[in-house]
Specification:
The chain has about 350 residues and is mainly α. The protein has one domain: Formate dehydrogenase/DMSO reductase fold (Up-down Bundle). It is globular and about 60 Å long. The chain starts with 16 loop residues before the first helix and ends with a helix. The mean pLDDT is about 90.
Length: about 350
């Protein structure tokens, strides 16, 4: 069977594709930062709790429900922009995964309520029950990340879609050599940013022990993630690898900027400076999001390019989107102002 026959026709875009590409990269970077802060801090807190130190686990556990809400909400935006540009690939891979993909919704709900139950029932629960609840919630997040990685890799490989006809009830992209290093690259990165989140939390609470713990996790996990990143890079098909090794100047420069950002973040981490580490971490995640964007384009180039999508030049919907975006950000800022004001009064 010719895999090209399984690819639906791309829908026309209302405005040039570049706008959606920029929004996809920016919103994905924000989503990843929230996801990393949530998953990494939850994992570190659970490990400390299992060693008998429940203080850190409780402090990060209080932040878990809002962080999960922000992760999900800011994850919707890049998913929608992805579907605008590459929906005829993403929809197919989602359908082919079947129940594995649909299970993400109830699994996330279990994580959500698990963290809420731990937060409000902390005193009434025993340490064993509490740790079990936190472990279940963390496992749900790990499952969701693995399914997302499966989907994002499967959409890039139409030649693997034909496996669906010999599978039963959906299948995973387990034969892809990039799957495991890509997944670990995100998870180890989450430990790094989670540690940074704990350090920043300790800085706000004037807890030097939190700062020391968080910066240690951030620095060591970032070092390990550089090795995982090289593993991921070497697992790519040779033609794509060569594009990142100088074959494509923009892609090579973005990858180089990511490595420089990670190196500067490690230097700031060794100096125990959470603020500078955070700045370099944000820049690194942004450059890595751009690198990921190039990687997607290289994989899909034999089948499709976003530049080839027809454009209808209907800008009214885009202007409406921008209006709601500005208004929504203003409303969020006002809500945060009210929240901080009420918090000061309670204090």
């Amino acid at each position: 069977m010719n895999p090209a026959s399984l690819i639906p026709v791309a829908e026309p875009l209302p405005i040039p594709w570049g706008w959606f590409d920029i929004l996809l990269v920016l919103t994905f970077a924000v989503h990843i930062l929230f996801m990393n802060a949530l998953l990494g801090s939850a994992a570190i807190g659970l490990l400390r709790a299992m060693k008998g130190d429940a203080g850190l686990a409780r402090d990060v556990g209080d932040k878990a429900p809002p962080l999960l809400a922000l992760t999900i909400n800011f994850g919707v935006a890049p998913l929608l922009f992805l579907q605008v540009l590459y929906g005829h690939f993403d929809y197919v891979s989602s359908v082919l995964m079947g129940g594995w993909w649909l299970a993400v919704i109830p699994v996330l709900m279990v994580a959500y309520y698990g963290y809420y139950a731990a937060k409000f029932g902390w005193e009434s629960m025993g340490a064993g029950k509490r740790n079990l609840l936190l472990a279940v919630a963390l496992s749900c997040l790990l499952y969701t990340g693995f399914m997302l990685t499966n989907n994002m890799t499967l959409m890039l490989l139409p030649e693997a879609w034909t496996e669906y006809f010999t599978a039963s009830g959906g299948f995973l992209n387990l034969s892809d050599p990039t799957l495991l290093p890509r997944y670990l690259h995100f998870m180890v990165g989450a430990l790094a940013v989670g540690g940074l989140f704990i350090a920043l939390l300790g800085r706000s609470k004037e807890r030097d022990d939190y700062v020391a713990t968080g910066m240690t996790w951030f620095t060591r996990a970032t070092m390990v993630n550089l090795l995982v990143g090289f593993w991921f890079l070497l697992s790519l098909p040779r033609p794509i690898l060569l594009l990142f090794m100088g074959g494509s100047q923009p892609a090579t420069m973005v990858l180089l900027a990511s490595l420089i950002g990670a190196g500067m973040a490690i230097v700031a981490g060794l100096r125990k400076d959470p603020v500078k580490s955070a700045l370099w971490a944000v820049l690194t995640v942004l450059f890595m999001s751009l690198t990921r964007n190039w990687l997607r384009a290289f994989y899909l180039a034999p089948w499709f390019t976003a530049e080839s999508t027809p454009v209808t030049s209907q800008y009214s919907s885009f202007y409406l989107f921008l209006g709601f975006l500005v208004g929504g950000l203003g409303l969020m800022g006002y809500m945060m102002k009210l929240y901080l004001r009420s918090r000061e009064r309670r204090a």
